[in-house]
Design goal:
This protein is of the alpha/beta class. The protein has 2 domains: 5-90 and 144-188 and 239-339, Rossmann fold (3-Layer(aba) Sandwich); 95-142 and 190-233, SIR2/SIRT2 'Small Domain' (2-Layer Sandwich), CATH 3.30.1600.10. The protein has helices spanning 5-17, 37-49, 65-72, 122-127, 130-139, 148-158, 173-176, 207-214, 242-251, 296-300, 324-335, 338-366; strands at residues 80-84, 162-167, 184-186, 189-196, 204-206, 229-233, 257-261, 283-287, 317-321. The chain has a 6-stranded parallel sheet with strand order 3-2-1-7-8-9, sandwiched between helices. A 3-stranded antiparallel sheet has the order 5-4-6. β4 (189-196) and β5 form a beta hairpin. α6 (148-158) packs across α12 (338-366) and α11 crosses α12 (338-366). The chain starts with a helix and ends in a 25-residue tail after the last helix. Residues 58-338 form the Deacetylase sirtuin-type domain. Keywords: Cell cycle, Cell division, Cell membrane, Cell projection, Chromosome, Cytoplasm, Cytoskeleton, Membrane, Metal-binding, Microtubule, Mitosis, NAD, Nucleus, Phosphoprotein, Transferase, Ubl conjugation, Zinc.
Length: 391
């Protein structure tokens, strides 16, 4: 869910050394042998410290949202990677983690935790699963609708520009918005599937099975061995999915534009992805505040994000500060997509509302109670109000 340095850093180094894999889509190749350690170190220092590299070419005519939009409309931009965090889902009503007063970590007192992050620690979960499942009832996928940001990424796909969306979120709203599994790297896992936590069992369970138990206030227990069943989200102390490490090799070598939405870039190894793009690749940040700027110590360790928005050497990084939905609408307007995006949001939200009303009617009919909800046409909701915050 949050900071995974414990296991992620070592795994990223292993993946970097395996970047010679011929088939980046295979999850099994994350640990394959590739570059030698010397090659890895040479590339690492070249990337993070600029040693031995040529002077980067400036590809944006100006470091503004307008400059990014013109680049996107040019022949130079054919592959876009999006990196997204909790800030793109706050407009849907899902709290982010760190916002003072409203963030998830600021509102966990009711669970009597030793410290807020314990609710997402695997060791604590194995001993005390109750707080997590109580929280899961509030945050469970299916109770929220995707935001403007989610549908903007969907438009990138429909326009043939989206190479991949790397998400830190576990709310599955990217899937609800119309992205397929192939379009996604769910870096911190997903509620979409669950597994028994027993290493000798690992029986898999689907979304509906888990949902039924969570909303019945039951601790999900494996039907085979009676161990606790956990959604496939990444807790502290767990490795990130192998798909993250295998796909990032090719994706971040071949990207033409990186768009970063609603993330604090404080979570490793996810945050380090921004430094993996080629030196000439523009990077656009849409967020409440500037983030991901260079930190000398983290750069030396290989986790330097290296974003540079304001110095005299700045040549490719653009920051649009404000609500993520507003930023996506502003970019869509510059691209000539705004009306199309707003229409997509209205139609998709109306379809979700209609499906929800039908489900309520079906449940009422099954119980023998008359249902007025199912007979009433669903009224399309207005475009999601902006309200995204950084993760």
């Amino acid at each position: 869910m949050d900071n995974r340095e414990d296991s992620g850093a070592a795994a990223e180094v292993d993946a970097e050394k395996s970047s010679g894999s011929s088939n980046p889509d295979s999850d099994d190749e994350a640990g394959a042998s590739g570059q030698s350690e010397m090659d890895f170190l040479r590339n690492l220092f070249s990337r993070t410290l600029g040693l031995g590299s040529e002077k980067p070419e400036k590809v944006l005519d100006e470091l503004t949202l307008e400059g990014v939009s013109r680049f996107m409309q040019s022949e130079k931009c054919k592959k876009v990677v999006c990196m997204v965090g909790a800030g793109i889902s706050t407009a849907a009503g899902i709290p982010d983690f760190r916002s003072p007063g409203t963030g998830l970590y600021a509102n966990l007192q009711q669970y009597n935790l030793p410290y807020p992050e314990a609710i997402f620690e695997i060791s604590y979960f194995k001993q005390h699963p109750e707080p997590f499942f109580a929280l899961a009832r509030e945050l469970y996928p299916g109770q929220f609708k995707p935001t403007v940001c989610h549908y903007f990424i969907r438009l990138l796909k429909e326009k043939g520009l989206l190479l991949r969306c790397y998400t830190q979120n576990i709310d599955t709203l990217e899937r609800v918005a119309g992205l397929d599994q192939e379009d996604l790297v769910e870096a911190h896992g997903t509620f979409f599937t669950s597994h028994c936590i027993s290493s000798s069992c690992r029986k898999e369970y689907k979304l509906d099975w888990m949902k039924e138990r969570i909303f019945s206030s039951l601790i999900p227990k494996c039907e085979k061995c009676q161990s606790v069943v956990k959604p496939d989200i990444v807790f502290f102390g767990e490795n990130l999915p192998s798909r993250f490490f295998s796909l990032m090799q090719a994706d971040f070598r071949n990207v033409d534009l990186l768009i970063i939405l609603g993330t604090s870039l404080q979570v490793q190894p996810f945050a380090s992805l921004v430094s993996r793009v080629p030196t000439n690749t523009p990077r656009l940040l849409i967020n409440k505040e500037k983030t991901g700027e260079s930190d000398p110590f983290m750069s030396l360790m290989g986790f330097g994000c290296g974003m540079d928005f304001d110095s005299e050497k700045a040549y490719r990084d653009v920051a649009w500060l404000g609500d993520c939905d507003e930023g996506c609408l502003a970019l869509a307007e510059l691209l000539g997509w705004k009306k199309e995006l707003e229409k997509l949001v209205r139609e998709e939200h109306a379809a979700i509302d209609a499906k929800s009303s039908q489900a309520v009617g079906d449940r009422a009919g099954a119980s023998g109670a008359p249902s007025k909800v199912a007979k009433q046409p669903a009224s399309p909701k207005k475009q999601c109000p902006p309200g995204s915050e950084e993760e």
